[in-house]
UniProtKB/TrEMBL annotation:
Keywords: DNA-binding, Sigma factor, Transcription, Transcription regulation. It comes from Agromyces terreus. It comes from the Bacteria. This is RNA polymerase sigma factor (Sigma-70 family). The keyword Protein biosynthesis does not apply. Belongs to the sigma-70 factor family. ECF subfamily. Residues 15-77 form the RNA polymerase sigma-70 region domain. It holds the Pfam family Sigma70_r2.
Length: 181
């Protein structure tokens, strides 16, 4: 028996609502924005029951709607997005104290990436999806996902190296050939 769209929506919110909100939070860096994005994505996905959805397919639709909203917002608010961190304090993160500063720093760096790079990195390394699963989720080719992952990881690495050099000081004995890939 086919399940109604209402049953699927309810099950999605109950079983995967927290994961969807964490996904949105990793893309936005703001808990309130994340909750709003997930709510809007749920409304867009289930607002007009035109077709039957399975739970995995409904989750993919909602994730895609969240990503599209983040990309649209970044296009609209390009300048504000680049300087917002100067005006807004980071949201509190409920993680063990000894690792929280590292996680906050990494989340900030991920949010500084292009939206598709950030989405690919979040899905691949936080949600532990394969490249093909990320491609299906985002509606991209596997090659495009690999490129976004490569570019995003390179940008993260450069950002980390730049901040390590600025805070710790450069090692005078280190040469360019010493870089480990």
């Amino acid at each position: 028996m086919a399940r109604s769209w209402d049953d699927v929506a309810t099950q999605l919110v109950v079983e995967r609502g927290d994961a969807l909100t964490r996904y949105a939070y990793l893309l936005t860096g703001d808990a309130d924005d994340a909750a709003d994005l997930v709510q809007d994505a749920l409304v867009r996905t289930f607002g007009s029951p035109r077709f039957q959805l399975t739970l995995p397919r409904a989750e993919a639709y909602v994730r895609r709607a969240v990503l599209n909203a983040v990309i649209d917002r970044s296009r609209r608010d390009g300048t504000w997005r680049r300087v917002r961190h100067l005006a807004v304090a980071p949201a509190p993160v409920d993680v063990p104290q000894d690792r929280s500063d590292v996680r906050i720093d990494l989340m900030r760096r991920i949010r500084s990436l292009a939206p598709r790079q950030a989405a690919c990195i979040v899905l691949r390394y936080y949600d532990d999806l394969t490249v093909d699963q990320v491609a299906r989720t985002l509606g991209l080719s596997s090659g495009a996902v690999k490129r976004y992952l490569s570019d995003g990881l390179r940008a993260l690495s450069s950002s980390i190296e730049a901040s390590d050099g600025a805070t710790v000081g450069a090692d005078p004995n280190r040469t360019e050939d010493d870089h480990v890939s």
